[in-house]
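Exercise 7.
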Amino acid sequence: MGNRGRRLYMMVALGLVGFALSACGEAGPPPPPPPPPPEYADKHMPPDYWNNPKIIEEGRAIFTGAQNIDVNCASCHGKDGKPVKAGARDFRQTEHMKLFSDSQWFWRVSEGVKGTKMKPWKTKLSEDERWKVIAYEATFGLKGLKYDPEKKAWVPDND
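Solution. The predicted structure, written as tokens, is:
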């Protein structure tokens, strides 16, 4: 192999190594979700629901299907927030969960998510029940936090 062949071989080898290393790295944070439509933009979790053991237990009963056999979030999202079906949101991923406001979570639970298997639950669950499910879901990746609509951020729940 001549000088030119060795250089070409080295360039290809270095390119393949670089490609392999870049494929092993973190993909980076997911893009922020779209804002909720106007009818959901001003909906927020009742203030005393965040990290409230009674509310969280009621949300758990709904999430796991113990309260209503027609609603079983755990059948896709897992009993501990770890998905058991492909494509289901992993509620344990704190940084990804923080990308969504409480209004966005409420919108997604209520209307479902287009292009996914997440269906709308507004016909099966009352508004109060949907908030309880969201309070429970938050315990997987947002425990001890609450969404502050004024700051538009997740903050420690010091109440």
